[in-house]
Amino acid sequence: MHISKPKSPLEQLRPVLNLLADGEVHSGESLGAALGVSRAAVWKQLQKLTHYGLVLESVKGRGYRLPGGLNLLSSDAVEAGLDAAARDLLRQLIVCDEVDSTNAQLLTRLERDDGHGVAMLAERQTAGRGRRGAAGSALSAPASTCPSAGSSVAVCSCWRG
User: Fold this and answer.
1) Strand pairing partners for 94?
2) pLDDT band (50, 70, 90) for residue 31
3) Residue 115 in contact with residue 90, Cβ under 8 Å?
4) Strand order from edge to edge, sheet including 92-99
5) Alpha-carbon distance 77 to 143, whole Å?
């Protein structure tokens, strides 16, 4: 029996993020139709985006947009960008919307002898440290420190000799 774990708040917002990622204006009605929810439910989801440091622009009478759009992680896009040598070395690529720490997750896999040749990427870390010990991620960083939310990625890879 497969038991699925509950989606993180960011994973729950992924469908609306995917729609808004193009940076274009989308009406609440069109977002609701695409998501299969009411305009009120869309509004509630949009309000949650500010928790992640995203700037949502409301265009009166037209809808909503994320200025500049987002470049969200996609395992297909990452794999397509790998050259043949890298693809041969990589046993597994894990792409997450949100994780406590990419490093901690892969260290746990190594302890289970399941981490060799694995790379993990995440849009957001809740407990991890970024470059030079900085906490958080692009999706939680203020616009002044990260001009394009979704452009910074938490990455960890493991190889055991």
Assistant:
1) 120
2) very high
3) no
4) 92-99, 118-125, 154-158
5) 25
Q: Which three-class secondary structure state does DSSP give residue 99?
A: strand
Can you give the pTM of this predicted structure?
A: 0.68
**135: region left, alpha or beta (phi > 0 left; psi from -120 to 50 alpha):** beta
> Which amino acid, residue 117?
G
CB neighbourhood size of 33 (10 A): 12
Residues 6+ apart with CB under 8 A from 103: 128, 156
Q: Are 59 and 51 in contact (CB under 8 A)?
A: no
What are the beta bridge partners of residue 120? 94, 156
Could you tell me if 54 and 149 are in contact, meaning their C-beta atoms sit under 8 angstroms apart?
yes
Which residue has 């940076």 as its token pair?
23
38 token code pair:
């009411």
* Residue 28 to residue 64: CA distance in whole angstroms: 7
